[in-house]
């Protein structure tokens, strides 16, 4: 995991002083080579030992090692997640440059997301979905797009899945819920009160909750039995949602492939379903 990703992912669990250091590093990653630990401490009006302890808490020997790791991230283009296209680029080449920058940013978000979710976690969640009696999938706002598509993918993989468009309708069916049922909740920030309450009720009825959120600390992630995390960062407010959706879709697609790789049972079912769908579309 890159140094900058470590800092972003652990920031919410840091102390107030550590967050000040983290924010400075994230905001000034390209300038850190000019700062010694003492200069950084003076700039933030904290002790030099706080900078050293911050570096060691992230797994580095000291500030020089952390600074070097951040410098490598910046050299790879991980500094702030943005890749601006030069305004002087020729009109014909500007579109290609813009497309390339967007592709690189999406790829970086997908790679960071993969690094946050271990193979063991993905396999465990795939096993949970595979053994479920019914999988309920819900997401609100932009998350509803991914939730609806994922529910369809689950059905294609031979999993009984139900897409929920309104959390208010979910409690109606809880009386029929089984212990083997699973609720998958997609919520970027994990703070929607309706979804958190739904997850709490579902768990109280002995169901299993899987959350898919950003990698920040949030209520939904806390109450979930299993959690998948998405990483996507960009200084531009109109670009960051694009990166989040790309990384989220990549994660859901990976989970779908793991379900399809379950021996010889699901692939024939998936192939037959795909063939029937093709016939319907072509007729």
TrEMBL record:
<dbReference type="GO" id="GO:1901135">
    <property type="term" value="P:carbohydrate derivative metabolic process"/>
</dbReference>
<dbReference type="Pfam" id="PF01380">
    <property type="entry name" value="SIS"/>
</dbReference>
<feature type="domain" description="SIS">
    <location>
        <begin position="125"/>
        <end position="266"/>
    </location>
</feature>
<dbReference type="InterPro" id="IPR001347">
    <property type="entry name" value="SIS_dom"/>
</dbReference>
<keyword id="KW-0805">Transcription regulation</keyword>
<dbReference type="InterPro" id="IPR036388">
    <property type="entry name" value="WH-like_DNA-bd_sf"/>
</dbReference>
<keyword id="KW-0238">DNA-binding</keyword>
<dbReference type="GO" id="GO:0003700">
    <property type="term" value="F:DNA-binding transcription factor activity"/>
</dbReference>
<protein>
    <submittedName>
        <fullName>MurR/RpiR family transcriptional regulator</fullName>
    </submittedName>
</protein>
<dbReference type="InterPro" id="IPR046348">
    <property type="entry name" value="SIS_dom_sf"/>
</dbReference>
<dbReference type="InterPro" id="IPR000281">
    <property type="entry name" value="HTH_RpiR"/>
</dbReference>
<dbReference type="GO" id="GO:0097367">
    <property type="term" value="F:carbohydrate derivative binding"/>
</dbReference>
<dbReference type="GO" id="GO:0003677">
    <property type="term" value="F:DNA binding"/>
</dbReference>
<keyword id="KW-0804">Transcription</keyword>
<dbReference type="InterPro" id="IPR009057">
    <property type="entry name" value="Homeodomain-like_sf"/>
</dbReference>
<dbReference type="InterPro" id="IPR047640">
    <property type="entry name" value="RpiR-like"/>
</dbReference>
<feature type="domain" description="HTH rpiR-type">
    <location>
        <begin position="1"/>
        <end position="77"/>
    </location>
</feature>
<dbReference type="Pfam" id="PF01418">
    <property type="entry name" value="HTH_6"/>
</dbReference>
<dbReference type="InterPro" id="IPR035472">
    <property type="entry name" value="RpiR-like_SIS"/>
</dbReference>
